[in-house]
Specification:
Belongs to the peptidase M3 family. Helix content is 50%, strand content 13%. By secondary structure, the chain is α+β, with helices and mostly antiparallel strands. It has 4 domains: 107 residues, no CATH class; 45 residues, no CATH class; 55 residues, no CATH class; 165 residues, Collagenase (Catalytic Domain), CATH 3.40.390. The chain has a 5-stranded mixed sheet with strand order 4-5-6-10-7. It is globular.
């Protein structure tokens, strides 16, 4: 990964390549003969050169390349470290709550916030231990922020935010700031009401310790939702087996897009884990559109990061054939048990729909060039198809079509 990043960074600071592109962009007769997509790709390549520091002298260009590589390393290290469990001597915690955490010799492993646990003390312990400041993580974060700022200023931007927002719909930090401030103002009154309701609920359930604490918010908001809708959120899970959710997606895509998902057998050595499943995406008239590898289940050393990433982008080959896109959807779902299939919470189901929105964007964005295929578009716009899928995931008319109890089928 490092060598590939280094190679790309060097290409983005290659003076000879940039000069050739600049000559093309300056030639009006050539530019007018190009189709809009080709012109757009040429402009995007020049944009990449400019934000990478092509205008700098050789020594500073090398510094920009090294900063890019270091920033990627620090991002990966920080994200990996953010999901690692914290250990604590088991005797520090009261004995009645120790069973909530994994035992490792004389230590307890705290791997999450236990936000749904009804025991206030368990939530408090998990919150304080799992989120306890880590010196190595803080050091990585400080170096990451400093490196981003150094790179941005080196290539001519005031801040990293100014550089990162170039080429997006937001365009600059001021637009983002105005949006967040407006959103905060509009939500302030609602948020205050929510906190008042949570405080009253905690006072009702735990009058001896009624002050609302940071580790209380997820739990009591869930309690309030359960009371308002007269149903325990945990009761949804049996209706959202992974199989039912995938059938729901297949049905939705068929009705909306004329697309079906078919499971395919993988070849020896094709996948990196036996849990990975391969789906062929087939359109009713255009045929095979591409492939999605579904890496859905938890396993040791797997990043705890739900995401979509591209293995191969779609593009039109010189011989006229279309290179099919190949993408991966990575989630962190629990494995099935002997008595039940993999069951998703409403949040997990919504996230599955969200990530599948990215995958469909990659399948349907059939462009001439890989540089603008699928999700290779402004970062903020890339979320639009996924947010649309979240609306479907929360619409009872859609959910009613596939949500079935895994035991009764009702």
């Amino acid at each position: 990964c490092d060598s590939f990043t280094l190679y790309l960074s060097r290409l983005n600071t290659d003076v000879e390549l940039c000069q050739s592109l600049r000559r093309l962009l300056a030639d009006e007769s050539v530019m007018s003969s190009l189709d809009p997509e080709t012109r757009r790709v040429a402009e995007l390549f020049m944009f990449d050169f400019e934000i990478s520091g092509i205008h700098l002298d050789e020594e500073k260009r090398k510094k920009a390349v090294n900063l890019n590589v270091r920033i990627l390393d620090l991002c990966n290290e920080f994200l990996t470290g953010a999901h690692l469990p914290n250990k604590i001597d088991k005797h520090v915690l009261p004995e009645p709550i120790r069973y909530n955490f994994t035992t490792e010799g004389n230590y307890l492993q705290v791997a999450g916030l236990h936000a749904d646990c009804p025991d206030d003390l368990v939530r408090e312990a998990a919150y304080k231990i799992f989120l306890y400041p880590n010196a190595e993580q803080l050091s990585r974060l400080e170096e990451l922020l400093a490196s981003r700022n150094s790179l941005a200023q080196l290539v001519g931007y005031d801040t990293f935010a100014h550089r990162a927002l170039q080429g997006t719909m937001a365009k600059n930090p001021e637009t983002v700031r105005q949006f967040l401030e407006k959103l905060s103002d509009r939500l302030s009154e609602r948020t205050q009401k929510d906190f008042e309701m949570m405080t009253k609920m905690k006072m009702k359930l735990n009058p001896q310790n009624s002050k609302l604490m940071p580790w209380d918010h997820p739990y009591y908001s869930g309690v309030l939702r359960a009371e308002r809708y007269n149903i325990d959120p945990g009761l949804y899970c049996p209706f959202f087996s992974l199989g039912a959710c995938m059938e729901g997606l297949n049905s939705l895509f068929s009705r909306l897009l004329g697309i079906s998902l078919y499971a395919e057998q993988t070849q020896r050595g094709e996948v990196w884990s036996e849990d990975v499943r391969k789906l062929a995406v087939v359109h009713e008239t255009e045929g095979l559109l591409g492939y999605i590898y579904c890496d859905f289940f938890q396993r040791p050393d797997k990043p705890h990061q739900d995401c979509h990433f591209t293995v191969r982008g779609g593009r039109l080959r010189e011989n006229g054939e279309y290179q099919l896109p190949v993408v991966v959807l990575m989630l962190s779902l629990p494995h099935s048990t002997r008595g039940a299939p993999t069951l998703l919470s409403p949040g997990m189901m919504e996230n599955l729909f969200h990530e599948m929105g990215h995958a469909m964007h990659s399948m349907l964005g059939r462009t001439r060039y890989q540089h603008v295929t699928g999700t290779r578009c402004p970062t903020d716009f890339a979320e639009v198809p996924s947010i649309l899928m979240e609306y479907f995931a929360n619409d009872y008319r859609v959910v009613n079509q596939f949500a079935r109890h895994y035991e009764t089928g009702q």
